[in-house]
Every structure is written in structure tokens, then in C-alpha cells.
Design brief:
Elements: E1 6-10, E2 19-23, E3 29-40, E4 43-50, E5 57-65, E6 68-72, H1 77-97
Antiparallel strand pairs: 1-2, 1-6, 2-3, 3-4, 4-5, 5-6
Length: 98
């Protein structure tokens, strides 16, 4: 795993459970809404949208290191597609319930 594939999670000053702040490799902080947490094949993933631009959606693999959550970029296209498919199924289920 390359260091530039990791994003550090920083607790935002605003205490909202669905908003997190990530620092990129340059130390630039950006706030994201947590749209969904999914588990696919035993691996946890997070789907986030930029607070400033909800069109900017990111998908991360979530792991835990030293009692801290680490968000990793997904390089494998098949893995990414599996997460997108699972998210679309979740959306379909939510639509069916309404």
C-alpha cells in the first residue's frame, strides 16, 4: 500500500455524526458527508460526498490501524465496480421501501 493512497481522518470542529474531514497527501483538509457505509465480501467501504460540491463523490476502502480508521483509495476496477453495484442495490432497496 502506497502512502499517497491513504487519507488521514480528522475530527471536524462541527460535531455532526455524518460529516468527516479528510487530509490529503498535501495536508489540505476537506469535509465530506458520509453517504453510506457498505460491507462487500467482508471489507468495509465508505461512500462520501464533498460538503462543498455534492457532485464530488468518493469511494474508499475503510480499515482500522492503531484504533484509527484509515480511508484507502481503491485501485482495482473490479473491486470498485463491486462496491458501486452494492451501493446501487442499497439505493434500489431504499426506493422500494418508500
Amino acid at each position: 500500500m502506497k502512502k499517497d493512497d491513504l487519507f488521514e481522518v480528522v475530527t471536524p470542529e462541527v460535531e455532526e455524526s455524518d460529516v468527516i474531514e479528510l487530509l490529503d497527501e498535501n495536508g489540505v483538509a476537506t469535509q465530506f458527508n458520509i453517504i453510506a457505509n457498505l460491507e462487500v465480501d467482508g471489507q468495509e467501504y465508505a461512500i462520501l460526498s464533498n460538503v462543498e460540491d455534492d457532485e464530488d463523490v468518493l469511494i474508499f476502502r475503510v480499515s482500522e490501524e492503531n484504533d484509527e480508521f484509515v480511508f484507502e483509495t481503491i485501485e482495482d476496477e473490479d473491486e470498485l465496480n463491486a462496491v458501486v453495484d452494492a451501493y446501487n442495490e442499497l439505493l434500489d432497496e431504499m426506493d422500494d421501501e418508500e
